[in-house]
Amino acid sequence: xxxxxxxxxxxxxxxxxxxxxxxxxxxxxxxxxxxxxxxxxxxxxxxxxxxxxxxxxxxxxxxxxxxxxxxxxxxxxxxxxxxxxxxxxxxxxxxxxxxxxxxxxxxxxxxxxxxxxxxxxxxxxxxxxxxxxxxxxxxxxxxxxxxxxxxxxxxxxxxxxxxxxxxxxxxxxxxxxxxxxxxxxxxxxxxxxxxxxxxxxxxxxxxxxxxxxxxxxxxxxxxxxxxxxxxxxxxxxxxxxxxxxxxxxxxxxxxxxxxxxxxxxxxxxxxxxxxxxxxxxxxxxx
Length: 286
Fold this sequence. Notes:
Elements: E1 9-10, E2 23-24, H1 47-57, E3 61-65, H2 71-84, E4 88-91, E5 94-98, H3 102-115, E6 126-129, H4 136-148, E7 153-155, E8 161-164, H5 168-177, H6 193-212, H7 217-231, H8 241-259, H9 268-283
Antiparallel strand pairs: 1-6, 2-3, 3-5, 4-5, 6-8, 7-8
């Protein structure tokens, strides 16, 4: 097993197939009784903050039951809600928002479900491998190998890999066969803030040029080069592993769209919209 992977049994939690429609009408008393609510990812929330939010949400609220989701999917949704400034309350794995925001949150739920992996069964013993600090390129290679071996897995709230304990030997063999990120010359260190800023600035500059002309060949090449660097960069300071993987996924989505041909090629208007989304996201970090 490569350095940096520490196996350990993960306590059972409610998981299952991703629900197609997690929204349900709330019980008016759900958020006012019982144990103190938990925050995103199951961590204890600030009761004072939650109480203020509950009062603002009032009775006109909608709940989303996210218990069937993998931990990373809930963490990603929480990050999107924070980024978009949507007032919300988590109680365990149940998300509550104002009814007026429900339609917008539905869209965020769809975004998360589009990239979600089915969660593992709650009652089966599981093992976690601490790979959340790996660059996304290495995480993707690992995920591809697990998929090829038909081994189910999920990413938890910390971005670490979770598998069934019964598959531990097979997963160990896959990890042994993969390159170790800690020994790879390809990995770009995230410890140097100047290096991180330089890579993100290249993504922003390329996206800015592409927003003006999505067919600019130099800008496409610049985004390809910057995107390759992003994939080899571990989650920098200020990003959670889940947020960083989501960002790298957006960069990859834009690159794929720029290189799509034939019927798969989006119209220039769609390309500009996608590039503008990337420019806005990365603009918050440069």
